[in-house]
Design brief:
This protein is of the alpha/beta class. It folds into three domains: about 80 residues, 3-Layer(aba) Sandwich (Udp-n-acetylmuramoylalanyl-d-glutamate--2,6- Diaminopimelate Ligase, Chain: A, domain 1), CATH 3.40.1390.10; about 210 residues, Mur-like, catalytic domain (UDP-N-acetylmuramoyl-L-alanine:D-glutamate ligase, 3-Layer(aba) Sandwich); about 140 residues, Protein-Tyrosine Phosphatase, Chain A, CATH 3.90.190. The protein has 17 helices and 22 strands.
């Protein structure tokens, strides 16, 4: 569901909720439009939250925001326009979001977390829950101290469901987000190496992700991945009723997939089994790793009241709403490009490499991989392991492994451990060099995977391979 928030706040109320001070503005002026942190997205009646970033300071755009129709600016220092001065903008946004939640006591709130798959699962779940009623879900990966409250602030008086994505870069982050919008339903997908360097290890990641089930009320529901022992152990950390999902044959989880298979484009089909019965499902999404994401979404929708037919039909028709996540496109010359360049961690890169191997049985595969961020002291070893995995899964079809950037170079050392792999291994400084290297190598039926953490900006490589300008 899209649109401007219509839980209106007068500027006097904004100041009261945020503990701020109104300057130059009419206390009775009403914020009835979107709350944004990007001045280019200001709409009439909205509120512009000025954030001082690494490369720009939102306070410098206060006048432009007002010219675009903002009612006022949420700021931490004086600006020459109507404003509410606060000590901390993220905290002020959180306070406003909590006020919106408190104004919607009938709305049912679900939180989704995990080391990987959060956004895909959120997108799937939102498309199912929308069948039940007006639903708010984040755009892309709006899942941190800024994106989370901004998502909640899009809710209006008709909103019945909020499907929220929760991320963490350290202990206490998820617990904080849960206080902003207290969930009654919580989904935990997995515990992996994403951010493990910042947390100090997988057990610490598990403790942080477990803050979601811990925050659930006694009448809530914790939806846990039975195939991940660290996630399943979170059942002991919640007062809520526990529902599990599983892809493992013979599992006793109430929501599970049987007979998983992939078509020639890597799209999964399976039989969905639930307490309400079973139904065949074929996803439009690519990659076997989307099956547990679909199960988690199905379990959540079922708990919210969607019937089996609605769940199965919703999964069959659901599309990838967020960009650069397993986007599979074919060029006019027959070359297939997999753009999975939004983010990367060891688990998601393995899943992407599995998809590359599946999509290139009759041709050659090329993996263009940037670095995986936030792995701490384990970074080199993790990159070497992924390089080895790439060579192993691609022994018969991986024609080239291209490591982009100095931090990704250890991928090649790992690939060279696999002596039976005969593909090319190249280290290049940037995406332009990767494109130049590929230019004279690609043939019809070849498949190129582009995968990296956001800081590597490799989505431009995929766009260039597809001839898309300005991406």
């Amino acid at each position: 569901m899209d649109g401007d928030p219509v839980i209106p706040f007068s500027l006097a109320r904004v100041a009261q909720v945020t503990g701020g001070r109104l300057e130059h503005g009419d206390p009775e002026a009403v914020v009835g439009g979107e709350v944004v942190i990007d001045s280019r997205r200001v709409s009439p009646g909205g509120l512009f939250a000025a954030v001082a970033g690494e490369h720009s300071d939102g306070h410098d755009f206060a006048a432009a925001a007002m010219a675009a129709g903002a009612v006022a600016v949420l700021a931490t220092r004086p600006v020459p326009v109507p404003s509410v001065l606060v000590a901390d903008v993220p905290a002020a946004l959180a306070a406003l979001a909590r006020a919106v939640v408190d104004a919607l006591p009938a709305a049912r709130i679900a939180g989704i977390t995990g080391s990987s798959g959060k956004t895909s699962t959120k997108d799937l779940a939102a498309q199912l829950v929308e069948r039940l009623g007006p639903t708010i879900a984040p755009a892309g990966s709006f899942n941190n101290e800024f994106g989370h409250p901004l998502t909640v602030l899009r809710a209006d008086a008709g909103t019945r469901y909020l499907v929220l994505e929760l991320s963490a870069r350290g202990p206490g982050h998820i617990a904080y987000l849960c206080r902003v919008a207290p969930p009654r339903y919580g989904v935990v997908l997995n515990v992996g190496h994403a951010h493990a360097g910042e947390f100090g290890g997988l057990d610490q990641v598990a403790r942080a992700k477990g803050e979601l089930p811990e925050a659930l009320p006694a009448d809530g529901v914790a939806i846990l991945n039975a195939d991940d022992p660290r996630v399943l152990a979170m059942a002991a950390r919640t007062r809520a009723r526990v529902v599990t999902f599983s892809c493992v044959p013979g599992s006793s989880a109430p929501v599970r997939a049987e007979g998983i298979r992939l078509d020639d484009r890597g799209r999964p089909s399976f039989t969905l089994l639930t307490p309400a019965g079973s139904a065949p499902v074929t996803l439009r999404l690519h990659g076997a790793h989307n099956v547990p994401n679909a199960l988690a979404a199905a379990a959540l929708a079922g708990e919210l009241g969607l019937d089996l037919d609605g769940i199965a039909d919703g999964l069959r028709t659901a599309t990838a709403r967020s960009r650069w996540r397993m986007e599979v496109s074919q060029r006019g010359d027959g070359v297939t490009v997999i753009n999975d360049a939004y983010n990367a961690n060891p688990e998601s890169v393995r899943a992407a490499l599995d998809a590359l191997a599946h999509l290139s049985p009759g041709g050659r595969g090329f993996a263009v991989l940037g670095h995986m961020a936030e792995l701490g002291d384990t970074s080199r070893a993790r990159h070497e392991d992924i390089g080895e995995y790439a060579a192993l899964v691609g022994e018969s079809g991986l024609a080239g492994l291209i490591a982009v950037g100095e931090e990704a170079a250890p991928l090649l050392d790992g690939a060279r451990r696999v002596r039976s792999w005969t593909g090319e291994a190249h280290a290049v400084p940037d995406g332009a060099a990767a494109l130049e290297l590929l230019a004279n190598r690609l043939k019809p039926s070849d498949v190129v995977l582009v995968k990296a953490s956001r800081a590597a900006h490799l989505e431009g490589v995929a766009a260039a391979l597809l001839g898309e300008a300005g991406q």
